[in-house]
Amino acid sequence: MGRRSFFQKVGNTKIIPISLKIVAIFTCLLLLSNFATNCINLILNQRQIIKLNNEIMVSQLKDIYTAANNQYQIVLFNGERNNSINALKSIAKGTFTLPSSIALAVKKDGDLLFSVCANGTEIDEELVRKYKDSVLENTADSSSISEEVIDYSFYDKEALSFMNDNLNNSIEDGSINFQTIDGQYFGVYKYQSEWECFFIRAELRSDTTKSTNTVLGLISLIILIVVIGFLIVGLFLFKKILSSVTRITNSLYQMQQKQELATIDLSSATNDDITYLAASFNSLSSTINNLLGIFQKFVSKDVVKKAYDEHQILLEGKRRNLTILFSDIRSFTYRTETLGNDIIDLLNVHYDKVIHSVHENSGVIGSIIGDAVLAIYGTERTKNKSIDSLDSAWNITTVTASLREKMIARRSEIEKSRILTEAEERVYQAVLIDVGVGIDGGNVFYGNIGSDEHMTNTVIGDNVNSASRLEGLTRVYHLPVICSDYIKEEVENKSSKYKFFEIDTVQVKGKTEGKKIYFPMNTEICPSDIEEKFLQFEKGLKAYYSGDWTLARTEFKKCDLEVVKVFLERMGKSNAPANWSGIWTMQTK
Q1: How many Cα atoms within 13 Å fall on the side-chain side of residue 76?
Q2: Which of 168, 357, 429, 477 has a beta carbon 3.0–4.6 Å from 395's, enabling a disulfide?
Q3: Which carries the bigger pLDDT value, residue 259 or residue 400?
Q4: What percent of the chain is modeled with pLDDT above 90?
Q5: Alpha carbons 589 and 586: distance in angstroms, whole number
Q6: What does the alpha-carbon distance between residue 387 and residue 372 come to, in Å, rounded to a whole number?
Q7: Tally of CB atoms within 10 A around 37
Q8: What is the SS3 assignment for 182?
Q9: CA distance 117 to 123
Q10: Measured at the alpha carbon of residue 395, what is the angle toward residues 390 and 397, in degrees to the nearest 5?
Q11: What's the rounded Cα separation, in Å, for the pair 589 and 583?
């Protein structure tokens, strides 16, 4: 096996793994962040340790204790007890470093030999004695003295008991925590037997906590600033490196929202494996879109959508209430014989307009059989499927009429210089396409039939056959569009665009009952006088139904419509049959 290169190539371009870029940058940022944070933390911690070590109170208490021994000897020599106490207070003050540093000399009963605080508060033995004497003189009940002198005695009785208990157990020094009116203190103590006092050197816990919190806050702030800085730099770098990922993600998200495949814009993408994946996706997307486009040209768009959403097509179907449109080219056999293979080109021009009209109005093409088109409406959600079908029908007839007008104009141009030959005349007549459209609707079977090897999407039902027969009747009645009463009921009173005129009641071959047929007049396309003509036609039709054919002939002759010729020829000069029901039986399909 050949040696595999770490970097793959597409052509001459190396594909750098995105993971390598991320790991490299993340590692550098992580190392830099940790190094900077730990350096700052180490410097600040060292300063705090030095500060705390300097504040060790044991040595300070030792100084006070030594001074107490010396001052006691001085008291024995000159008897100046108060001067010695003041000297001890001065020495204690010299050891203070924090705003609430305190030094005390507490007797075993809790009385203070002295108490001095960095904030200036001082109490000594003489002040305690004077205060007690004042309380005794003004207090009848001596039992309240202990409460009155609380400010001139050791505040925390539990701490005092703790020191006394230790002394009873021959433990003269140690650490202590005690409470005062200013808060909680921690410190060290040592019993001085000559003064019979516990000498205490302590600091207010909140002072040291405040210092620690300040350092901690400073460290946190520095770390936060450093992290934010690195984060901004990291996000900028990652955003730059992963810009193609963001672009790809956004493109995929838009595809998901639109539920359609598209290609991703890679014009400014970097040369990494993410871009390679996107390029591969574009290739796959193009292939799928091509196949989907081909697939959609052979089957209806609702089937394509279902196959795309469910990733499969099953042999299934169900009864649905749909509208069916059937369109057919009149005299198609003559046109085929005349045009030969060129009929395909003509059909393609025609079908391009027809299919566009169907799709434009929310319909799907059910099938194309030679010159006939079957369209289905209602497979997708729409406001009114029958209105959609009528819109398509009139679009089809309009574009077909437009093609005929172009052919007529072309003939006129040619005849300005010469007369058409007999062959040219036949071709001209062949390309003058005319269509008829029949529309019906109701409950039909709609779905896929066939086998696992080959299947087709189809619509089956009596209403499908009816739409085909209605299209056939357009040739008989010389009308472009004919629909059933189903269409009339679904559209009438819901759209002012269409007015329905009854044409006849017919019984098509193979049926036992008559069916009313209607001409759906498009008020936006048809000339304004057409409505008046059909109103006159209805008068004749009413007489025709009633069996008064004499009156019917008179009324029909007042109406200038081609459909009238059908009835005049049908009635001739005779009267209505004796058993006349108003239903005309068709002899052909």
Answers
A1: 8
A2: 357
A3: 400
A4: 20
A5: 7
A6: 21
A7: 16
A8: coil
A9: 9
A10: 95
A11: 16
The amino acid at residue 123 is: I
The answer to whether the CB of 450 falls within 8 A of the CB of 315 is yes
**Dihedral class, residue 234 (left if φ above 0, else alpha if ψ from -120 to 50, else beta):** alpha
d(CA 372, CA 351): 10
Least confident span in 69-78, 104-113, 296-305: 296-305
Residue 311: pLDDT above 70?
no
- Residue 549: both structure tokens together: 């054919």
- Strand 481-484 relative to strand 435-450: parallel, antiparallel, unpaired? parallel
Contact by Cβ (8 Å): 294, 351: no
Side chain identity, residue 383: K
Give pLDDT, residue 348: 74
pLDDT at 78 over 70: yes
Helix (H) / strand (E) containing 445: strand 435-450
> Looking at the chain, how many residues does it have?
589
Predicted confidence (pLDDT) at residue 2 exceeds the cutoff of 60: no
Separation of alpha carbons 502 and 271, rounded Å: 72
**Residue 573: what are its φ and ψ, rounded to 5°?**
-110, 10
Helix or strand or coil: residue 456? Answer: strand
Q: Which helix (H) or strand (E) holds 518?
A: strand 515-522
- Non-local CB neighbours of 223 within 8 Å, separated by 6+ positions: 37, 40
